[in-house]
Amino acid sequence: MKILIIGNGGREHAIGIKLKQDNADVELFFAKGNGGTEELGTNVNIDTTIDIVDFAKNSNIDITIVGSEALLVDGIVDEFTKNDLKIFGPHQAAAMLEGDKAFAKSFMNKFNVRTAIHKSFINSAEAIDFVATQQFPIVIKATGLAAGKGVIIAQNLAEATKTIQQILDEKIFGAAGNEVVIEEFLNGFEVSVLSVFNGKNIYPLISAKDHKKIFDGDKGANTGGMGSIAPHPFYTQEIEQDFIDNILQPTLLGIIAEGLQFAGVIFFGLMIVNNKCYLLEYNLRMGDPETQAVLPLMQSNFIEVINDAIDGKELNLQWKNESSSCVVVASKGYPNEYEVNKLINGISQIKNNVVLAGAKYIDGKYYTNGGRVLNVVCKANTLTEAIDKCYKTIENIEFDGMYYRKDIGKM
Ligand code: AMP
Ligand code: GLY
């Protein structure tokens, strides 16, 4: 079987590792992949929908898996479907649940998916008049895709006013900021619940926690994610039931009512306040770095899960009774400017615990090639053991400007 994975981060390498573990004879292709995926299969230097469709056709790819969101919002799944090619991911209309936060919010309201109280604006003066009547902090979101930077928590009216003007008038996020969603600040803890949708039912994976801030103690700028653990230690059965009743089921009913069915991932970004789940956002793809922590705990054969989902079959997901943690090792300066092409030492000694992200492989050596460079991933019987293992393992790695958080998994 030939599988094509689209993307070049740690998430895509982790998906490749899991597929290869479950099915030694699967042939993997990555567009574009990285220094880690290169060892699992073939990296193909293409990144547009047209080129990827052509490649899948010409190379007789059996299933394509889309890692990141941009091509989904672009409609890559619609193109694959037109060409009778199998793909795991939402078509464009469903991808807008991630690609347009205003659309996602009106969907949540229409179908009673529990979420923060909010209002959308395209006019900055109206938005500013509105925030002047609100309590602080307040959350301001650019509605389009802004690479994880489009959410600002304003502490007072001056900050909120400036943020609204920057997004709507100065267009700091470009067209992604043609509209803003302004919503109440929810004070709780976050849980990432990834799930697989087979077009009929939504099957949640094991829960996870992502550490989004750059510095220890959740300080500093938001990033794509600096580490993750699974399962989430505070996600109790009671909270899970609340999630199913107030988020998952209404979402499923809404998707069916709107005719948005697809086979792919729905990732629920939850905030838990007093044991009640609120949906912050939908993502229509797996999370990075949640995937790196979640997949090693999956007992089921992932390609069978994906294939069954595409065929609309019932899924039966099995999990290992263990915990896992993932520590992201980044380049100094990330999420802002950072240097690349630094030699990375120590990977070969700890290969089984390393997932590569912004790293390339040239003539037997690894070099940095991005902000989030690599992930160290460990699992064990307990979360504490998994985390300890990660931090011991990380000591083998060394490169100029190496940075990682020291408190992944601490709550
Ligand atoms: P989003 O892209 O909508 O998930 O927002 C990114 C991050 O901003 C979330 O992971 C939260 O940490 C934070 N956030 C978003 N919405 C809210 C909210 N209503 N209250 C508190 N924090 C929020
Ligand atoms: N880790 C959060 C995301 O992938 O969006």
Describe the structure.
There is one protein chain. The chain has 411 residues and is α+β, with helices and mostly antiparallel strands. It has 4 domains: 2-91, 3-Layer(aba) Sandwich (Rossmann fold), CATH 3.40.50; 123-178, ATP-grasp fold, A domain (Dna Ligase, domain 1, 2-Layer Sandwich), CATH 3.30.1490; 189-310, D-amino Acid Aminotransferase, Chain A, domain 1, CATH 3.30.470.20; 323-403, Alpha-Beta Complex (Glycinamide Ribonucleotide Synthetase, Chain A, domain 4), CATH 3.90.600. The chain is 29% helix and 28% strand. The chain is built from 12 helices and 24 strands. The protein has helices spanning 10-22, 49-58, 70-74, 76-82, 92-99, 101-110, 124-131, 157-169, 237-257, 290-294, 302-310, 383-394, and strands spanning 2-7, 27-32, 42-43, 63-66, 87-88, 118-121, 138-142, 151-154, 180-184, 189-197, 202-204, 209-210, 213-215, 219-222, 227-230, 264-273, 276-283, 323-331, 343-344, 354-356, 359-362, 365-368, 372-380, 402-403. Strands 12, 15, 18, 20, 23 and 24 form a 6-stranded antiparallel sheet that branches. β16 and β17 (276-283) form a beta hairpin. α5 packs across α6 (101-110) and α7 packs antiparallel against α8. The protein is globular, with a radius of gyration of 21 Å. Bound molecules: adenosine monophosphate and glycine. Adenosine monophosphate is lined by residues 116, 139, 141, 151, 183, 185-186, 190, 212, 269, 271, 280-281. Residues 116, 139, 141, 151, 183, 185-186, 190, 212, 269, 271, 280-281 line the site of adenosine monophosphate (AMP).
